[in-house]
Amino acid sequence: MKIRRYQETELNNFGEQLRNARIEDGRSAQVLATLSEISMGYWYQLEKEEREWVSEEVIRRIEKVLRIDFGVEFE
Asked: What is the count of structural domains for the chain?
């Protein structure tokens, strides 16, 4: 049996951090989105902070692709 726990946390300026990380990385949004297993449209929504929430799984994939840590922590 699987048990899930739902938690939320806040990450300020995530869109700006993501955009800066992409620019520093030097790869295109299309390449990074594909490697992160999300669409380019979703990537840009995250950069513009047009999404109300994002899953931890997506954040972790992006962190892995960009080789960075956004500092997302849960209690």
From this structure: 1
Question: Mean pLDDT, to the nearest integer, of 16-30?
Answer: 97
Cα separation, 72 vs 51, in Å, equals 17
Cα atoms in the 13 Å half-sphere on the side-chain side of 52: 0
Is residue 73 one of the residues assigned to a domain?
A: no
pTM value is 0.86
Q: How far apart are the first and last CA of the chain?
A: 23
Which amino acid, 61? R
What tokens were used for 22?
């992409």
Are the CB atoms for 69 and 63 separated by under 8 Å? yes
